[in-house]
Amino acid sequence: MVEKKSEPKDLMEQAIDQAKPILAKLGFGTVVGYCSGMALKKVGKAVATIIGMGFVVVQSAVYAGYINVDWDKVQTDVVKSVDTNSDGKLDAEDAKMYWSKVKAILANGIPDAGGFSLGFLWAVRYS
Q1: How much is the pTM?
Q2: CA 115, CA 18: separation in Å to the nearest integer?
Q3: Are 45 and 127 in contact (CB under 8 A)?
């Protein structure tokens, strides 16, 4: 019986072989974390675009003299509504509290919550 010689591995197979230790640790939580991060990033960009466009329209109307806006009051009201620790400013502590709330909702019951955070961060940061 003649043995078949195995074909050389292509670059993708070589990369997968090298990444096996990492891939083995990537679980369900990491995958759904990544997908959630990608979705939230897309929605965040859309919301930022809408808010930015709204600001441009309102500020153009202010500039043209059609309306007057008290931007100091708007800023105070916005900060008051999103300031989670009630210190009067938006800072890293507020971001941490929002992340804790989002993570508690999205990772609830997920077997690999640490992997979820890794996947989420990977999607938001690097994609």
Answers
A1: 0.65
A2: 20
A3: no
